[in-house]
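Re-running Alpha/beta hydrolase to confirm reproducibility after the cluster update. Everything else is unchanged from the original entry.
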Amino acid sequence: MNRLLAGGLLLVASALAAPALAQTAKPTVVLVHGAFADSSSWNGVIAVLERDGYSVVAAPNPLRGVRADADVVSDLVKSIKGPVVLVGHSYGGSVISEAAEGASNVRALVYVAAFAPDTGETALGLTGKFPGSTLAPTLAPPVRLTNGGNDLYILQARFHDQFAADLPLAEARLMAAGQRPVAEAALGEASTAPAWKHIPSWFVYGDKDRNIPPVALKFMADRAQSRGTLVVKGASHVVMVSNAAAVAGLIEKAAAAAR
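Result of re-run:
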């Protein structure tokens, strides 16, 4: 009888503890890179998050179109069991806004020097809405695609000053050589599902961003009623590379709130 009683008490204790464990489990962080970058741009952030016990996936972003790219990310997110914090850089912000719509396990959005468009808005439109971007003159001649579209790159000689001015020149040169092109049409594709309207969001960006004007980033953060906005002094458009610890820290704040 004593053994039976002890066994029963153990089962009851386990059942009571299980929900508590589930509630404290850390969400998976899904990172989505933007135009002219790739998943390696998250390496520093990944190192911090994994050290702190988070599961992390750097999602492939085809950079072909907002809806098509969002479908790729959405499929990945739906395959993950448990809560997800979805993080996007630059154009990747437009992608996560779409991908999170209808994904019941996305509990928080983090915009890293990223677009957070409203319905009908485009990356190009938001960039041009405010003064300050110097991207256009640094683009290489478009690469014509067999489907009739264009791929856009930043001129390698201009990449450091335009995209990553706060990084060592040697590191920026490697990034320039390995940059992923974005389809020109993707930057002009309108958003249809701004998930930031109903999913809590956080924002981080540098005050020396030359791709997306800092005033535009502030506008989008304020409009989304950001739960926390971090402006990194002197940081370029690749704030997640130059200030990985700060960006990871903000992601962790979002993750803590998402539990």
